[in-house]
Design goal:
This protein has about 550 residues and is α/β, with parallel strands linked by helices. It is built from 17 helices and 21 strands. It is about 30% helix and about 20% strand. The strands form six sheets. It has a seven-stranded parallel sheet, with helices on both faces.
Amino acid sequence: MTTTITPQPPSLAPVVLEPHQQQIHDFVVDRPFAGAWVNVGGGKTLSTLSVLQTVRPMGHILAIAPIAIARSTWIDEIEKWGFPIRTKSLIVNENDRKLSKKKRLERFQEVFSDPPTMYFINQELLTRPALKSCKACGGQGGSGGPCHECQTGLVDQMPIQSIVGPDGKSRDTIIWPFQTVIIDESQGFRSHTSSRFKALKQVRPAITRLIELTGTPSPNGLHDLWSQIYLLDQGQALGKNITEFRNRWFIPKMVPGTTTPAKWIPTANAEAEIHEAISHLVMSAKNTSLVLPSLSIQDVNVTLPPDLIQTYKEFKRDLVLDVVRTYTNEDGKLTQSVESIIADNQAVLTSKLMQFASGTLYTADPDDPSTKGQYEVIHDKKIEMAEYLVRNNGSEPVLIAYHFRSDLEQLLARFKKAGIDAQAFDGSRDMIHRWNARQIPVMLLHPASAGHGLNLQHGGSTMIWYTLPFSLEHYLQTNGRLHRPGQQRPVIIHRLIAKSTQDERMPGVLADKQLTQDNLLEAVSSEDMLLAALEEEIQDDLNDLWLSDRV
């Protein structure tokens, strides 16, 4: 069998790695199952491609990543550095157009006849749930496995054969054609109950080399490390199952009045012991000579009118807000109606207050599908400030990170009216290339879909956070799109803060999380590994946000 990676032709200049990248390369080359948990901008992609060229793995390679990375970042790096690797996307066609379901399924089957190739797929397409509308299974899945009619994920569609094991017993086994698997942003597999983790766990015995890459391996704390480490060593370091892991290093914190754990609290020695247990599997480049350009973070205050601040406070106190909606009726006359917005719980209220501070408020009735996505504009103060910052940036390109779709729509409308060319990031390679060629004056992106892996440092050095996220992972990763190696200018990040709203608390929330992460990094840097205690979901922050602030 031929190899996937072949030696570079003499015409191609050899890739010279930075010292920290060489460290990653050496660590991963020496270990068939390894994690490179390296900070944002650490050059994980190039280091891994160099690993592949060194070890020249047999057969197919599968790279699993968030869609934006799987769609463009890896292929861009391969082309940029001239790696002689045959590539094929399981997401888009050669023109960067999304594959139809039919064409995608055809490509899944072509894997068994293709020459050795590096394939790219997003995490969501590893496995798909059974559909209740399926005539073959009725939502129950296939007999003893997935339903090939409605479950259209990669693992779901792999053939199954009956194979006799060492014990002499015959078992149905998935035929897995990818001997080498790369999981980019492996924190996407942190949940041991997720279908994607279970799917990859099934085929793990057929994988001979597995590489995990991430800059934020533990978005919800140490508890979420088990599944990622299990994929590396099948339970040798942290336990064969989640129960063993919990029993050894955690204490359950129960929901009051029940025997149901609300969360798992690490024991006093858990951090050091877990670090030691996985030090042979994962590394960090935290203590290497990674030099990034200067970074300046500036909080820009936005002042709301006193009546709006009063309304905001009343909404926060009463959980109810009446919004006057003006619209044109069937007769062409302006008509007003009052929409009552009710926050059923603190999580909903938190989201609504974020919307309010940013300028819009969703008014959709969950019981009326026709109102989906409906919102009212509350103010335009943040948009005014965003436009001001763009106009005063010396004609340099600007990235704007938004949170709500309503904000995206309002920003695009405002910039269009102002004659400013603003475009929403669509995840395409073409748009990344145009941005890096400085052809897009203003590009708007959402941290959840574009926060990881994208090389945007060549297109600009200024970013505006329209609404700060609760997720430190999203915050750091999105900042890292500009503040990374290759950036030639000082990076300036503006954070728009609506005064007297919860916006003012967000820098502190993120700073506290950063301190937690930095303490962990400092504790483990001498062991060449990274365990970041990060938080991702709004619910995890509610106690901090509301403990002393409800009135």
